[in-house]
Amino acid sequence: MYTKSFDEIYAGIKKAVEIEKKKQFINVEGRYSTFSKFVLNNLKDFRKLLSKPDRLKLENLYISFEQYEFDSLNQRMKAVELLIETFADYKKIKEKKEKIIKSTDYCDICTGSDRCNCSCARRVRELGARAD
Question: How much is the pTM?
Fold first, then answer.
């Protein structure tokens, strides 16, 4: 089964949020589902990419979008803002990790894999852990 990447999920969410804002938070009906169901499906895909502690951080967001169609306008606006903030934070973390990995010089033998135990691979793993 195909699993979406973070970038694909982020792009879809971003586009959907723009449309929802333009339509004034009415839970827009798309081709296949409503805005809230689209977000929930993407959150499920996103959770598959995360570790268990990070999955727990998404729980409030998930609950917000389960209730979205029944919420008032203010609650919907807050849920969308929380969605935007959450994905922006994860995007920053992802970019920081990629920057650390790109900036690290590997030795001639090292591929930077988790199995490699040379000093540069250990440094990358250590810095990646600090980026969280």
Answer: 0.75
